[in-house]
């Protein structure tokens, strides 16, 4: 996973949340007088019952972190579920987040090598303080997933 920002991070690191097998990137950006929280992650795929259980628990923990944050939040990563999944909807509802794709083309990100059956499982979610001015998939970078790119604007 890579997180790029034109604004430098004032705090960042990888941490385990809940019962997560994989660490979650947590960072903060200073934008004018506002701290912005960032969560980046790649949850396990639900290919077996243990993977599904882990993914679902990790998504609950991530949503709770977003919900408890006193700062505007950007939550992004491979959620291993589509926007039509009840687990995705729960993350948005609990975390008070919205899908940055809304209002833009919904196109798949995985598997990158098969454009016919790609699923949108890589997401950028934002708290209500943000407006999204653009959202798109990027070109294949020799990964199983297409990168996603959003331009966000913090309300003044």
Automatic annotation (TrEMBL):
Gene3D superfamilies: Endonuclease/exonuclease/phosphatase (3.60.10.10). Pfam families: Exo_endo_phos. InterPro entries: Endo/exonu/phosph_ase_sf, Endo/exonuclease/phosphatase. Residues 1-137 form the Endonuclease/exonuclease/phosphatase domain. One of its GO terms (molecular function) is catalytic activity. This is Endonuclease/exonuclease/phosphatase domain-containing protein.
């Amino acid at each position: 996973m890579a997180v790029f920002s034109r604004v430098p991070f004032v705090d960042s690191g990888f941490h385990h949340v809940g019962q997560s097998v994989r660490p979650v990137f947590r960072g903060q950006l200073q934008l004018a007088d506002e701290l912005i929280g960032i969560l980046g992650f790649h949850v396990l795929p639900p290919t077996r019952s243990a993977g599904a259980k882990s993914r679902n628990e990790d998504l609950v923990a991530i949503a709770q972190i977003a919900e408890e944050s006193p700062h505007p939040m950007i939550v992004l990563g491979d959620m291993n579920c589509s926007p039509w999944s009840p687990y995705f909807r729960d993350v948005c509802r609990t975390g008070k987040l919205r899908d940055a794709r809304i209002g833009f083309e919904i196109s798949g990100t995985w598997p990158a090598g098969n454009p016919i059956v790609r699923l949108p499982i890589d997401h950028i979610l934002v708290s209500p303080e943000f407006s999204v001015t653009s959202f798109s998939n990027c070109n294949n970078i020799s990964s199983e997933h297409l990168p996603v790119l959003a331009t966000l604007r913090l309300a003044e």
